[in-house]
Amino acid sequence: MRIKTQKRLRHLSLDNGQRSLIDLPLEFEGGRVFVLWDLVIVGRHQFKARIEIDPKLLDRLNGPGGNYAYRGHLVLPRPQDN
Q1: Whether 65 contacts 9, CB under 8 Å
Q2: What angle do CA 23, 39, 2 make, to 5 degrees?
Q3: Residue 32, number of CB atoms within 10 A of its CB
Q4: Tens-level pLDDT at each residue, the chain (82 residues)
Q5: Which of 7, 9, 25, 46 is the most buried (most CB within 10 A)?
C-alpha cells in the first residue's frame, strides 16, 4: 500500500491555557488519515508514531502554511506524561 506524506495539517492547539497553531505532517493510506507525531530513523528503518484522525473532519485550505485544517479534537501525547 502506497503512503503519501507531503500534505500538512494545521490545528489550533491549547497548551497551558494558551492558544497556538501547530503544523503536522499527514499521511493518507487508502481511506484512512494519520497525523505523523514523531519519526525516528535507525539505519534504513523508519519508526513512526501516528495518530489516526477522522477524514470527514478535514477541511482543505487554499492558503500558505498548511494544506488541511482539522475540525475535530486532536489529543497529542505529551512526553512528560510517559
Answers
A1: no
A2: 90
A3: 13
A4: 555 546 777 666 666 667 767 778 888 888 899 988 888 999 999 898 888 999 999 888 876 655 888 888 777 766 666 5
A5: 9
DSSP 30: T
Euclidean distance between CA atoms 24 and 34, whole angstroms? 10
Q: Which long-range contacts (CB under 8 A, 24 or more apart) does 1-7 make?
A: 1/29, 1/30, 3/27, 3/28, 3/29, 4/28, 5/36, 7/67, 7/68
Residues 30, 53: Cα–Cα separation, whole Å: 13
Sign for the CA dihedral angle at 63, 66, 70, 74 comes to: negative
Ranges of each domain in the chain:
8-71
